[in-house]
Amino acid sequence: MTGKGLTWTAAHLRAAASPEDVRTAIAEAAGQLGDGPVPAATALSHLEELALDCARMRADLRAATRIREVLLASVAHDLRNPLNTFAMSAGLLRDDLEGPDFDRTRALSLLTRMERASTRMQSLIEDLLEASRVEGGAVEFIRRPEKAAVVARAAIAKAKQLCADKGTTLDEGAIDDDAVIEVDRMRATDALVKLIAVALKSTGEGGAIRIGVERHEGDVLFTLRATAPRGTTSTVPQDESRGGLGFLIGRGLVTAQGGQLLTESTQEGPRMVVAFPEKA
Q1: For the packed helices 240-255 and 104-135, what is the interaxial angle rounded to 10 degrees?
Q2: Which pick of 31, 214, 228, 274 has the fewest CB atoms within 10 Å?
Q3: Is the pLDDT of residue 241 over 50?
Q4: What is the pTM of this model?
Q5: What sign for the dihedral angle of Cα 109, 202, 71, 191?
């Protein structure tokens, strides 16, 4: 086989989508390209390229497997509480129906809890579909220069009631009004709202979440600091399996727009940092 024939064969092997395609490419090469000599350096070069392609495909496969495992872990994490609530309420309602003294008020209360759990599970299913789209690259982004302060304040306004319902205060920290980033404003706002919801899990009633915006070494940083009530400890999830679907979606919406999500512990408490390159 000649060097040109080896190039042709390598190209067809890269395009092969199945073992049968590989066998076909080899058979065609053997039948059409002959057995002329190939310099060792040329052969090794093509073998190196094929080996690198195989390594990249294995890495992509591992990444896809990791995404699937994370999604399963996140679903299990987030569905556990509403499922337990629904099952427990259903059991109590059955006991009441089978008992001699039926309490209508108690039954309605149990049904209300079941409805809330059902609504929560429906929301989680929608989040699962959104997480799948984000991780699969199926979400469209329309990126434009935006004031980071506008994004931060939009997220605060959107998440304010959610935090109030949980007895947590959501406030502005120091915000740089001149910092500009190139993002899809709606998607960036949604990312921050998801991360606020994740932080909310760690604060509890009486806690506080503060969002700030600053510029640092060519990046614009959104900081989300969660503080638990005095005498308790707040912790920010360090990965998506503990943070649930909200963490996974928030991180995906950030990284898909060229940003990074970092979690860290400081003397002042745990925080999440979303970093986007500053737009000149």
Answers
A1: 50
A2: 31
A3: no
A4: 0.66
A5: positive
